[in-house]
């Protein structure tokens, strides 16, 4: 699957079908720090991903 990291625009390819939580685990990303987006849909941690997917991992920023 193709992964685009926002806002950096960096791209990566990952093989194999996995769930969102397993992908984030493999990438060593804490789930609460990013949004995972496929097309126009925001994905939950238990969503299944396929090799044909193109997803965006967008950093969540908070502050005051």
Q: What do you see in this structure?
A:
- The protein is mostly beta strands and 64 residues long.
- The protein has one domain: Roll (Ubiquitin-like (UB roll)), CATH 3.10.20.
- The chain contains one helix and seven strands; from the N terminus they run βββαββββ.
- The chain has a five-stranded mixed β-sheet with strand order 2-1-7-4-5, with no helix packed on it. The protein has a two-stranded antiparallel sheet with strand order 3-6.
- Strand 4 and strand 5 form a beta hairpin.
- The protein is globular and about 40 Å long.
- The model has no long low-confidence stretch (mean pLDDT 93).
Shape: globular
Name of the CATH homologous superfamily: Beta-grasp domain
First-residue to last-residue Cα separation: 35 Å
Number of helices: 1
Spatial ordering of strands, largest sheet: 2-1-7-4-5
What is the CATH class name? Alpha Beta
The main pleated sheet reads as: 5 strands, mixed
CATH topology: Ubiquitin-like (UB roll)
Q: Provide the CATH architecture.
A: Roll
Helix content: 10-25%
Low-confidence stretches: none
Q: Rounded to an integer, what's the Rg over CA atoms?
A: 11 Å
Task: Output mean pLDDT.
Answer: 93
Q: What layout of secondary structure does this protein have?
A:
Elements: E1 2-6, E2 11-13, E3 18-19, H1 20-26, E4 34-38, E5 41-42, E6 48-49, E7 54-59
Parallel strand pairs: 1-7
Antiparallel strand pairs: 1-2, 3-6, 4-5, 4-7
């Amino acid at each position: 699957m193709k992964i685009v990291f926002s806002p950096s625009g960096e791209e990566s390819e990952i093989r194999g079908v996995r769930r969102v939580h397993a992908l984030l685990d493999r990438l060593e990303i804490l789930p609460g720090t990013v949004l995972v987006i496929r097309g126009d849909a925001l994905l939950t941690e238990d969503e299944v991903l396929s090799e044909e997917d193109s997803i965006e991992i967008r950093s969540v920023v908070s502050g005051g």
